[in-house]
Structure formats: structure tokens, C-alpha cells
Amino acid sequence: MSKLYVVPTPIGNLKDITFRAIEVLKEADLILAEDTRTSGKLLKHFEINTPMQSHHMHNEHKTVGGIVEKLKSGSTIALISDAGTPAISDPGFLLVRACLEAEVDVECLPGATAFVPALVNSGLPNDKFVFEGFLPVKKGRQTRLKLLAEETRTMIFYESPHKLIKTLSHFCEYLGEERQVSVSRELTKLYEETIRGTAKEVLDHYTNKPPKGEIVIIVEGKK
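User: That's the sequence. What structure does it adopt?
Assistant: C-alpha cells below.
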């Protein structure tokens, strides 16, 4: 029976893929990959020879219809992103929604997601939290930060290294310099690190030591 499998892939360390993920990727008729060059290295490492098709934020609106038709005709398709779980700040939501609307089975496998280890490592309350992903770059950023200043739950953000200083500066400005922050960088990789402290302390650290790699920011909620 046809099905769309949403398959998490490692966020750094290749050993973090599951046996089941490898099995699904090998048995699928087609793999939808955010970047076929990036995913090609992963598939080659695990000797997965399933055909790939590009599926990313710039073409997903155009390709969703055709993919759903393939599924309805009996194909089994696996969706992956460059790293982590698809649809979490990556393409995937539109396709999952379209499949459900077309009554095509969807199954999401458990696996790697960057924000979970970052949240646990932060030492900040994790019984209740809110995932914000990437903040707006320009329009709506100030409005969003003002709203988040009143958020009482722990907040999770993704950020690129060249925008980290700007984001931490905005946290100091809108949330307060004493707000507790934890920045996890290069999770599961050789140079993984987590820096914890007040927003001002963490800002000072990265001002003196410019960051590299993928970044997750955990921010304390308002007390």
C-alpha cells in the first residue's frame, strides 16, 4: 500500500540515524530530498540506492500535486531534509497536509531533531516550552520580540551564525540583559558546545568569539 514516510536524518553524527530509517529509505520507491547533493552523501554512506527527487522550499508548491498523484497510484515515498526531522523549519508541511487531504497514509518516524538535545542541555525548564524556529528577518521582528517578552514558557529558536549577535542583542533589548539564555552549536558534531548565562553574558562571549555552525537558542520565559 502506498504511503508517505517522513524520515528524520542525522543533524551531524551519522550514527544517529535509526535502523528503521535506513530500512524505509532502502525500500521506498522514491526519496524526496531537500538537497540531493547533501542527501546523496548520506545515502552513499549507508549503501542506499533508491532514486531521489529534489523537494525544497523553492519548488514544493509546484511539485506537491504530482507527488500526491504518484502516491495515489501506489508508490511508497520517503521525505527527508538536509538534517533532522522534515517540516521542522524545513519543507514538509505542505506535502503532509496535501497527502492527508487526499487520504494518503502518512507516517513520521521518530529521530533526530536539533531542538530537543539543546532544550535538555540548557538546564532551563522544559515541562512547558514554545518552539519559535527562525525569527522574522525584518518585517514583524520587533512586533514578535515584544510579544515574546511576555512569554512565560521556555522559548526555542533556530539561528544562523552570522545573525546570532544581532538576535542576542535583540534579546537583551526586548527581553532584558538578565534573561537566561543557552546557545547550543554544532550539536552531535566534533566541536559541539553549549554556552549558558544571561543574555548579556552570552552576547559578550560570541562578540569576542564569532560562532560557526548550526545554532539553537533556548531562552528563559518571563518570571
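Residues 60-72 form the longest helix (13 residues).
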